[in-house]
Structure formats: structure tokens, C-alpha cells
Amino acid sequence: MSMIKVNDTDGVRIIQFNRLDKLNAINLEMYRELTAYLIEGDSNNDIGAFLLCGDKHCFTAGNDIADFLNVPNLDAEHPAIEFLFCLLGLKKPLIAAVSGPAIGIGTTMLLHCDLVYADASAQFQLPFINLALVPEAGASMLLPQLVGYTRAAELLLTGEPFSAMQARGYRLINDIVEDDELIEFSLNRAKLIASKPSAAVQQTKALMKPWKNHLKQHMQQELDCFTKCLSSDEARQRFQQFLLHK
Q1: Does the first or last residue of the chain, that is N or C, have fewer Cβ atoms within 10 Å of its Cβ?
Q2: Sequence-distant (≥ 6) Cβ neighbours of residue 217 within 8 angstroms
Q3: Is the dihedral of CA 147, 150, 155, 161 positive or negative?
């Protein structure tokens, strides 16, 4: 069974995490599939928008740490890095529907989404500091822009989880939707956008992100710092403790 489920409907490509036995933790194979489905959909004239979701009980617990550490060289060809820069380069709108845990990359990827909806069970966390790491996916630039420096500092420097209600107050998500309506509601929003003139939609998205080239440079700086932190003794100890207590 594929760990990523894909379905195209009414101009929307639905991409769903499908690894519930591991809380949808993203391994390298999943990163490769995610990137391939997004790139193909971005050039497919039948696709006007993407919907990213998990199960009604879990979005994603973040990276599969053991698998992630198997390929420690975080260069441009690393599947996780390819995915992050793919998110940055998407021309078409990306909508996310979040239920349950959205940890690490599960939260930072939302910063690249154009619309984000969640149900009341959603719980977000940016735990990089707890693992002796720095943020990724441009979070250290995007989060202060979105929520203000002091709030971003609180989220990134404490690594504490926060609720859907808090995320809405921080403007990280558009709205909170009833759990049994979340996917249908989010899909309908994606279908609405997909029904609009595609060139105008893509140009509007691009015009709202004039800082994209700067963000690309910033993401590379983050990656350089992340790589150094990942090789530190403290990070190794934190990862070992994490894997022992899973």
C-alpha cells in the first residue's frame, strides 16, 4: 500500500499522507513521491490547485527520524530538501487540511500553503530547539513575517506545542472547521480556486510573494546551519534519546 495517496478530482490534486501506523511520519520515499506528484501537477493543465491532508486523526508527526538520519548529507538532492524547495517553487495554490498532530515539517510546510484549515483536534509544534537544531523550510523568516517577532520567538525558542485555536489567533491557519466537515470544506475551497482562470490565479499568487528569491537564499542559510547542528554531539544525544523513548 502506498504511503502517499493521490486522487485528481474537479481540477484538484488531493495528496494524502497514508502511513497511520507511524502517525504519517514522512520518510525519504514519501518525500520523493510528494515532490513528484507536486511537480507533475504543477505542469498538468488539468490541475488548478492542490489539497494536502492526512487522516482525520493525524496530519503528520514530522520526519521519520531514523530514516532521515540514514542520509545525513543534506545537499540539494536529499529528498527532504528537494521537497522543501519544491514547495517554494509551486506556481499553483496549495491548500492544507490539518487534523491531529502537525509536528516539525508538519507545521513548517503550512507556511508555504496558500490556505490552511484545521479542526479542533489539530496540534502544532516546532520542536527543532528540543533536538538541538534550527528551523527549516524558511520558518525562521516566514514565521516572524506572519505572526510577529515576539510570537515567532516564543514558538521557535520554546518548541512547545500549540492548539488550533492558538494557531488561528496567530494567523497560521485560515479557520477551524468541524472535524467531520474538514476535508469536504477544504476540498470545496480548493475546487473553487481551481475553477478560476488559471493564469490569473498563478500570477496573483506570484505577485503576493515578491520575496521568494530572498526566501530561497534564506532557506539555504537555514540548511547550512541545520547541517552543522545535525552533526553536533548534542544533536546526536538528543536524537538517541528521542529514538529510545519512541
Answers
A1: N
A2: none
A3: negative
